[in-house]
Give the backbone structure.
Amino acid sequence: MVSLRDLVRGRPAAPRQLLPLVHTTKSKRFLRILRQNPNQLEGKVCSPLAGALVYLFYGRPAYRVEQAPSELKGNQLCPSCFFLKADVLGTPRNIFVFDTGGYSYYKAQAADLLPIQEFALHESIEEAVKFVIMFYGNEKNYLLGKLTPKISHTAAVRNCKAAMQYLKLRDVVRATDVDDRAFATEFSFDGNVSISNISLEAVVVPAPLLAAPVGRQSLDDYLKNILGLSASQILKYRTYPSLYLSPKEYHLRILDLSLEFFQSKWRAAA
């Protein structure tokens, strides 16, 4: 049996059509990050991994925005996303093929699940790209969760227990209350990650948030004047406050906006 990390490493180099690394959070925290000096994502200790780490997902705006009982529904709780350039952030501490925060839940659903380190890749962006191409065929299918047809029938995958468990786990959790973090490739970085005009590729925000103050200017102006984004890099979605929607009900619109943004980049590069 071959390990998953070595299975992926043995694949041919994939076309370098990089997706950004995505961090999704509540809009009120998104504003807090941009109102602090310096603008940065701060590492946090999250089980089961050790150390204070910043967690990002490859390409996917995947995150469940938790709502405390005391928090009223509204734009401040709606998800907002930072899209960061994967090739300028340095070497990650870890890359895993799923959200490590859900590992104990996955283990409860599949008692024979291998130790978490069996689902790690070698720590380079190229390995994540090769994994996506091998298991999903292309970036769009990865974003939509569409596996390469008959991937589980290939001899290479059948000779890798972790790969087979990854595929089986998709079926196990499909009928549970697991969101799409479960199959988003996860990067984690030591310390803090800077948000600057060098690292930031785009954002997704609820449209009303753009009028919120950041220093002496609006968020919209701050994103353009300080962080160097163009209007096409500020992806905004409409909200419906009078319907009292929960934050997660905007998730599909955020995914659609993300996919449209990536496809426009791919067309421009073709």
Residues 13 and 130 are 7 Å apart (CA to CA). The first strand starts at residue 21 and ends at 26. The mean pLDDT is 89. Residues 251-269 form the longest helix (19 residues).
